[in-house]
Design brief:
7 strands, 6 helices, four-stranded antiparallel β-sheet, alpha+beta
Length: 167
């Protein structure tokens, strides 16, 4: 029993964040590869953002044609260098109610398509510090049309992105 506890204690030392981050007690003065993150939580509250999204879609709350997508992390790349990430929350408006069930049942596939499209195509705005939302909508509609068919997803509304720049 003592050996098992000793093995567990020693093993847990190697799975602490300090060891992964290079802070395991080393006294060397080598340069660090730390990443500082600039947090930008957006201007408006989540409730007002949600209300404006539903208004932009032109549908009432609870409409079965609206699909709430999980957050998608999109890289911000400028001159082939990673500048940060944009956390994107989006809503899909499906053209017809009967197609909404299929899209809702396959949200995981839609999410995979959107993530792959976001990493395959640079969606960073010219400024390099945010997303080109119009380009993103275009790329995402193409990706969803490949999966579900042309015109099944009528519109995509994107809330203001949560930008996290690497410094």
């Amino acid at each position: 029993m003592k050996n098992l506890l000793l093995a567990f204690a020693l093993g847990s030392c190697f799975f602490t964040p300090a060891v992964y981050a290079g802070g395991g007690g080393s006294s060397s003065s080598s340069s660090s590869s730390a990443i500082n993150i600039d947090w930008n939580q957006g201007a408006g509250s989540q409730a007002s953002s949600h209300a404006s999204v539903m208004e932009e879609l032109g549908v009432d709350e609870g409409n079965p044609r609206v699909i709430f997508m999980p957050a998608i992390v999109v890289p911000l790349v400028e001159d082939h260098r990673l500048q940060g990430y944009a956390y994107i929350h989006s809503r899909l408006l499906v053209a017809h109610n009967n197609e909404a069930r299929n899209v809702q049942a396959n949200t995981h596939i839609a999410l995979d398509r959107l993530i792959r499209a976001s990493h395959r195509t640079n969606l960073t705005a010219e400024s390099g510090d945010t997303i080109d939302v119009d380009r993103m909508r275009e790329v995402w509609l193409i990706a969803l049309a490949e999966q579900f068919g042309e015109g099944v997803v009528e519109r995509i509304v994107i809330t203001p992105p949560d930008i996290r720049l690497l410094r």
